[in-house]
Amino acid sequence: MHDLAGGPVTYVNVGHSNLRAQVFAAVKSHEKSRIIVLIHDIIPLSYPEYSRREVTARFRADMVRVARLADGVIYNSAATRSEAEQAFVGFGRVPPGMVAHLGLDQDFIAPDQRFAVAFERPRFHIVGTIEPRKNHMLLLQIWREMLRELPANEVPELHIIGRRGWNNDNVFNILDTDPMMGHQVFEHNSMTDAQLGRALASSWGLLFPSHAEGFGLPLIEAAACGIPILCGENTISREVLGDYPLYLNVDNSYAWKQGILGRAGRKRESEADRKARGGTVSIPDWPSHFDRIFRFI
């Protein structure tokens, strides 16, 4: 916001918070004021089963306010824009909008560590809050199957990176009690950004079986490091990364298991392998993001 002394006000909201009626009313009380909102996703509306009931109700009220009062909406993807504008039609108004893909922080990993040789033995990673939407259960079931079918020393490692979320007791029970924990499956709840960057850079593959995503930043980070990606069939991944990932149906555990074992059965990749793969995809950057936003505003 600027010039609160009585002149024109432009309120740019970038975080799905402070979309309350009082805030909008305060901005609109200034002549020639404008409200611009960045929408990251509308998962609470599209997939209410992955949100608390009170969160869904509050989010819906916020989005109704955005539809009716916002002067412009910025979307992090065309997929998010399509879903949101469908909802806005039902709310009675579709504000002017534009798409600006989020950029990747270039310092998320040191430049000399970005393309790294893979870990000596197959090691896969899933990154994100441990909540039902992220679908950790699929991978845990696959690892249990592999341990029943293969010698333990032939089962690749799964490293789960992220804090525990909510409403996921079945997954938490496995993480707390299953014998594979600490041997084939490892949980990391407090990795620093630097540690995460190094782990991803040497990973044999990022696994991303999420049921729904707004943008999927770990996918972008993995692609920037030339890491193989196995992910669910979601629109945003194709929009940003094209054919870079291997897309798998999240309801087909057999396909996921075969994809993981197939990748684990390949040779250990070198820095050159990673650099070559990373060169096949265009990574969104912040200068392009802000250039589009400033021209829109």
The order of strands across the largest sheet is: 7-6-5-8-9-10
State the helical fraction: 40-55%
CATH topology of the largest domain: Rossmann fold
Based on CA atoms alone, the radius of gyration comes out at: 21 Å
On the 0 to 100 scale, the average pLDDT is: 94
Oligomeric form = single chain
Low-confidence stretches: none
Distance from N terminus to C terminus (CA atoms, Å) equals: 13 Å
Structural class: alpha/beta
**Any idea what the CATH superfamily of the largest domain is called?**
Glycogen Phosphorylase B
From the structure above, extract its key features:
four-stranded parallel β-sheet; alpha/beta; six-stranded parallel β-sheet; 12 helices; 10 strands; 297 residues; 2 domains; globular; Rossmann fold
Commentary on this structure:
The protein is of the alpha/beta class. The chain has two domains: 90 residues, no CATH class; 173 residues, Rossmann fold, CATH 3.40.50.2000. The protein is built from twelve helices and ten strands. It has a six-stranded parallel β-sheet, sandwiched between helices. A four-stranded parallel β-sheet has the order 1-2-3-4, with helices on both faces. α1 links the parallel β1 and β2. It is globular and about 70 Å long. The model has no long low-confidence stretch (mean pLDDT 94).
